[in-house]
Amino acid sequence: MERVAKSLARLKLSDAISTEDLARAAWPAAVGKRIASHASAKSMVRDSLIVEVEDAIWRKNLFQLRFQILAKLSEILGSGIVQDVEFRVPTPRRPPQPALRVRETPVDDEAERIDDPGMRIVYKQARKKASA
Q1: What distance in Å separates the CA atoms of residue 19 and residue 13, rounded to the nearest whole number?
Q2: Mean pLDDT of the chain
């Protein structure tokens, strides 16, 4: 871990890499692969790292581990970069909705309202047979 911290310290001197990028890159190293697969660092707000978690259970468990996580982040990044970690459950997004078919012309024949072409033919034949 010390080598990683020294490498990141050298990178901090570069203006091209922000502290937010450093904190997001250090997140998987601080918490490990298993936790990083359920929680991902999204951004920095002032000196707090915002982490999105899968659900409220992960948020509660990681909140209880936040001081250990902060100590690990300080070990990797150096002290003063990340002062707090905030865990958030993302708002669920609405899935794409299927498009509705729009008829361009009004339908006079009620058989044309039947979507299935086979059933439409059967209905028309039955109607013709019943009227004859």
Answers
A1: 10
A2: 83
